[in-house]
Amino acid sequence: GNSLSQTWDLLDKLRKQLDFTASKPMDIQSHGLSASAKIDTFSKGIVTSVRTDTGSVAHPLFGRLRSDNYAEVVRGLMGDQRPDPILIPAVLTDETLPPAATNYAEATSSLQRIADACSILLQQRQLVKNAAAFAASASQYALTTVLPIPHLDPTYCFWRKSKMRRETQVNLMFLIRRICRIYAAATACVQQSRGLVAIRSTAFACAACVADAICRVKAVDDPSQFTLHYSGLSEGPTEAFGIEAGSFDKLASNLPIYDPN
Q1: What is the DSSP string of 209-248?
Q2: Average pLDDT of the residues in 53-82
């Protein structure tokens, strides 16, 4: 009892050193007391002493915890209704284009449409379920099926047997790089597995082969100095460059690739 009295005296001394109280005045909620009790000093947030009268356990400042206008409070916390998000459809299939390109125009158009559709899908990955998987499948299809695989003989190679303009050459290289970047980003967002590593390595290898064949083409209108040096057609004592497979043969021998195509 003595220790409790000392505590109250200490609190009372501390209260006297304060010029104002940190409690806020009563709000619109009622604390359930009589009308005379609503105009006292305690209800106005003014505390003159920590020693209170009988019945002070009613805690009039707790009135703001009541939920008389619960519906209005909830609507105020929720705020205004958000508009529905705009969902832009992404078309991954086109009946007007063949499964595999038969000329440079079809190859360019197919890569452009697939890249645009994959970009729209990845931008809406929070609205479209499995958007990354769809983008990865479309990019993989573009690199392995839409673009014909080069041939060693220029007579039978799809990319070197016909004449190609420089703008077509630059556009194809740009679109292949864009598809590869989309494919890398999409495959990083899906569940990883040995099969995914296998097809990802194969798809990038196909993209490297196609890009290598395109770089060896001498444009009919304005050939690039890079392509001339790379293909060995430049003037002077020069030879053609090539891409080394490195450890890809060892990596591919241990990957679960079941489809020879």
Answers
A1: HHHHHHHT---SSS--HHHHHHHT-SSSS--------TTH
A2: 66
Residue whose token pair is 């205004």: 80
- Cα 260 versus chain centre, distance: 33
Q: Rounded CA gap, 196 and 133, in Å?
A: 11
Q: Mean pLDDT of all residues in the chain? A: 81
pLDDT the model gives residue 53: 58
DSSP line for 110-168: HHHHHHHHHHHHHHTTTTSTTHHHHHHHHHHHIIIIISPPP-SSTTT-TTTSS---HHH
CB 110 within 8 A of CB 102: no
Pair 97, 109: CB distance under 8 Å: yes
How big is the chain, counted in residues?
A: 261
CA distance linking residue 256 with residue 197, whole number of Å: 9
For residue 52, give both structure tokens. 């209170």
Instruction: Centre a 10 Å sphere on the Cβ of residue 115 and count the other Cβ atoms it contains.
Output: 22
